[in-house]
Amino acid sequence: MGRRAHAAFRESEAESLGLAVIGTGSLGRREMSPWSDVDFILLAPDGVANETLESAAEAMLYPLWDAGVTTGHQVRRIDDAIGLAEKDAQALTGLLDARLIAGDEAFARTLDEQTDALLKKIGPSVRIYRPEPPAVSADYPPAVHVLEPDIKESPGGLRDFHVAVWSALARFGRGGDPAQTFIDAGFISRVGWLELTQAVDFLLRLRHETQFRARSRSDKLSVAVQPEAAILLGYQGAGEAEAARRCSRITSRPRTA
Which residues, in sequence order, are bridge partners of residue 43? Predict the structure, then answer.
């Protein structure tokens, strides 16, 4: 997905105008799933007319749309991006994942520097955005162990890990390695971080298999999908039901026969 965005940028006039593609969301985190949206900011320097920016953005977006890629895109100047982030928690949280995909590296670094300066300005009162969880119901009970969990949003899912990392980046700065930040702050041991990231990697693999089976960006691990996904992840047992049961426990790495 990131390669598509990079290629679309190269083939459009955006590069000649000095624009930069800044990946956010899963693209910025390097956590793209098969049906993930491609979220990015088309970062524009001062002095480029709005009409020119709109034309450049359309020239870049049409090839992505023609390829069936769903985009979540914004066209921003640096001052606009920082000004919005200062007022809006969702915009600020998006910048925590920001990563240069294509364009001028020095220009993108300026956005990083101003984001860091904004975090220091806000200080401990910085707010991390998290979408409202699904309403409590029979389909979404407030429990970690459910029959058909949402791999991303259910308690213990990927979003909980993202929020923890965002909180550390907002509190301690974006310049360092999140792992070392957590360890130095005494939140977790090095072994604990390794175990945590292995669990996150497992959830991502499970999410990928779920989306391949559903052929959509669904994150719900349905009962119908569980047996096949479990077997493809390497779990073996006395039939599909046992493989699904072992996979659902998520207590160890998959074991192959």
Answer: 20, 76
Question: pLDDT, tens digit, for every residue of 78-134?
Answer: 999 999 999 999 999 999 999 999 988 888 999 999 999 999 999 888 888 877 665
If one counts the domains in the chain, the total is: 2
Name the pTM for this structure: 0.81
Q: Which residues, 6 or more positions from 156, have their beta carbon under 8 angstroms from its beta carbon? A: 144
Q: In the predicted model, is pLDDT for residue 189 greater than 60?
A: yes
Percent helix / strand / coil, the chain, rounded to 5: 55, 10, 40
Instruction: Say how far apart CA 189 and CA 65 lie, in whole Å.
Output: 44
Are 78 and 22 a contacting pair, CB within 8 Å?
A: no
89 and 172 inside one domain: no
Contact 242, 249 (CB under 8 A): no
